[in-house]
Amino acid sequence: MTAALRVLVVDDHPVVRSGIVGLLRTEPGIDVVGEAGDGASAVTLAAQTRPDVVLMDLRMPVLDGVAATRRILADTSAGPPPRVLVLTTYESDEQILAAIEAGASGYLLKAAPPEEILAGLRAVAAGSAALSPSVAATLVAQVRTARSSAGESTTGRGGPEDRGGLAVGLTPRELEVLALVAQGRSNPAVGRALHIGEATVKSHLLRVFAKLEVSDRTRAVTRAQELGLL
Questions:
Q1: Is 50 exceeded by the pLDDT of residue 187?
Q2: Could you tell me the strand order of the sheet in which 30-36 lies?
Q3: Is the dihedral of CA 49, 190, 130, 117 positive or negative?
Q4: Where is the HTH luxR-type domain (predicted)?
Q5: Would you give the DSSP letter of residue 11?
Q6: How do the domains of the chain map onto residue ranges?
Q7: I want to staple 10 with a disulfide (CB 3.0 to 4.6 A). Which of 16, 42, 141, 220 is the partner?
Q8: Distance of alpha carbon 182 from alpha carbon 15, whole angstroms
Q9: Which DSSP letter does residue 43 get?
């Protein structure tokens, strides 16, 4: 029998938190192991309960979701830390990028349908990323803006990075990560090979997903192969 997916729910609004917990408790194979109303409590409970995934809000008292994510992912004293899936009302560019830089494996909006939230939770638990369509679009726009600001055209160069007008611009490190993923290595294995943390691997992969305009590891590899990057 497959072990239940252990989830810690973090949200400072009691009614919202109760609704999320209620949704998860109706779903077979998911076990809510704790609830927290602020980031500091989330850090403490994550250390105590060792969940598989922390469902994290962003704007909270005492300690915000980005800072809490960093602390939770930095705690490897009892083994690999849980994965963090941001579930929030907010989708500003600054908040999205801050959460991803902190090591979050996904970013969904509370307005998403329940099935999207549940699918995202399971995807993150399995080591994949979960991004709402609007968040993925924001990341792609950020990448294109950065490329444009650097004076690099996204069309007309004729190389593999520009087929179809797609602004790829993968960094050498992102290509290293993607190459190891193409070999079938897990995020922890990629981190060990490159001597970087798993949270850093996730951050690189999310940027790769945005640049390649895909939403999972398999499609990232196939898309990179199509573009001649691997």
A1: yes
A2: 30-36, 5-10, 53-56, 83-88, 106-109, 130-131
A3: negative
A4: 163-228
A5: -
A6: 5-131, 135-226
A7: 42
A8: 43
A9: H
What amino acid is encoded at 18 in this protein?
A: S
Indicate left, alpha or beta for 103 from its phi (over 0: left) and psi (-120 to 50: alpha).
Answer: left
Separation in Å, CA 223 to CA 128, 135, 190: 16, 20, 19
- CATH number, span 135-226: 1.10.10.10
List, in sequence order, every beta strand (DSSP E) within the chain: 5-10, 30-36, 53-56, 83-88, 106-109, 130-131
Q: What is the pLDDT of residue 22?
A: 95
Q: Per-residue confidence at 123, pLDDT binned at 50, 70, 90? A: confident
Token readout for 136 is 């993925």
The three-class DSSP label of residue 148 is: helix
The CATH code belonging to domain 5-131 is 3.40.50.2300
Q: Is 228 exposed, middle or buried (0-12, 13-18, 19+ CB in 10 A)?
A: exposed
Q: How far apart are CA 117 and CA 1, in angstroms?
A: 24
Backbone angles phi, psi at 205, to 5 degrees: -65, -40
State CA 75 to chain mean position distance.
Answer: 18
